[in-house]
Specification:
Blueprint: H1 3-13, E1 17-21, H2 28-35, E2 42-47, H3 53-58, E3 64-68, H4 74-87
Parallel strand pairs: 1-2, 2-3
C-alpha cells in the first residue's frame, strides 16, 4: 500500500492514532516518525513525563499534544486521547 493511499484512508475513515507516552525520550521521536508515515492525524498524550518528552514533542508542531501535569497511567491517558479524538470529530 502506498503512503498516499494510507493518508487518504485515514482521512476518509475519519480516524486518528493516539499515542500515550510517559518518559519515553529514547524511543518517542522514532515512534512519532513511524506513525507519521501513516497519517498526520495524531494525538499524543504526555502522561506527566519528567524527562525530555516535552522537548521532543515541541519539535513536531503539527501534532495534537495533550500534556497531563501528573502521571495517571496508560489507561487514563488513552481515555483522554479518545475524548480529544471525539471532540475533533474522529471516529
Amino acid at each position: 500500500m502506498s503512503e498516499l493511499t494510507r493518508y487518504e484512508d485515514f482521512k476518509t475513515l475519519g480516524c486518528c492514532i493516539i499515542v500515550p507516552t510517559y518518559n519515553n525520550e529514547r524511543t518517542l521521536e522514532s515512534v512519532i516518525r513511524d506513525v507519521l508515515g501513516y497519517t498526520d492525524q495524531v494525538i499524543i498524550v504526555n502522561d506527566g513525563s519528567t524527562d525530555k518528552t516535552s522537548t521532543i514533542l515541541s519539535s513536531f508542531p503539527g501534532l495534537t499534544v495533550i500534556n497531563l501535569p501528573k502521571n495517571k497511567g496508560k489507561g487514563y491517558a488513552i481515555r483522554i486521547g479518545f475524548e480529544a479524538a471525539s471532540l475533533k470529530g474522529f471516529r
